[in-house]
Every structure is written in structure tokens, then in C-alpha cells.
Fold:
Amino acid sequence: MSKPFVAVLMGSDSDLPVLQSTMDVLKSLDIPFEAKITSAHRTPDVTHSYVKDADSRGCAAFICAAGLAAHLAGTVAGLTLKPVIGIPLDAGPLQGMDALLSTVQMPGGIPVATVAVGKAGAKNAGYLAAQILALSDPELATRIKTDREANAASVIEKDAKLQA
Ligand code: RP5
Structure:
């Protein structure tokens, strides 16, 4: 069986700049991932076949980002039993509130772990996927711990500069 990987899906190439934060986190933690542009609305058949195929190839978690009527994460969640993390994006006049509600308000039995709108959410989606994979990968768990410690050290260092 191939190594578990994370699938990073986005509804449009216009989502790519925000999703870069997700991919940076996955890269920094040495987690294999695939990135794909596919839309619940514009390419429903491609979305369906990709999810089924990725599932069968060892995808351990799906990260799905979309803006406006953001149905990508919910659609994917309906097609797999793997964890699905949804990132709502600010892509229109409602500044992501539309995408937030579309992503988070799933019917019972089909969960989407929804993170914050935009860049912080994109980053956290990477960390959340990492933490899911780390449940069965102690070396990855150690890398996440080291990353947390570095994060804390950076805050302490910034405060020390402020106090100097
Ligand atoms: C969504 O519509 C995409 O995820 C994107 O956030 C938004 C706008 O897409 P484009 O019109 O920029 O392709 O499906």
C-alpha cells in the first residue's frame, strides 16, 4: 500500500494564493500531498472520480477550499469516509460569510471540519490534517511538537524585543 497522503482541493485557480499557506505547512512537516483544482459546480464528475480514486490510493484526509456558494467540502464529504477539512474563502461581496455558512452547515452524519475563513484557516487546515495523520505516525507527531515549540519560542522572542 502506498504512503498516506493529503489531497488539497480548491474550487478555482483563483483560490491558489490562499491555499499556498496550506501547502507550505504540509511541506514543512514533510507530509506528501496532491493539489487539484476541481469544482463541485463546474466539474462535478471530475470531483467525484478524483475523490473515489484518491480514496482508493491511500488518501488519508481531504482539505477542500472554496468561496461563494462553497459546496466543495460538503460534496467531497458525501463521497468519502476519510476526514474532510473545509476552508471557506473570501471570494466575493459577502467577504467569506457565504462560504463559511455553506461549508460549516452540514447535515448530521456528513461532517466537515471547518476552519476559519482565509489564510489563518488555510494554515490551520494543514496543521489539522497533520495532527490527524500523526495519530498513526509518531515521527510526524514529533515534527508537529517541534513546530509548536518553535512557534512559542518566536512569540517569546518578539516579546523579549518589545521589553528591551
Ligand atoms: C468558487 O468560486 C471558487 O472556489 C472560488 O473561490 C470562487 C470564484 O471562482 P472564480 O470565478 O474566480 O473561478 O467555486
Summary: The chain has six helices and five strands. Residues 38 and 44 are 8 Å apart (CA to CA).
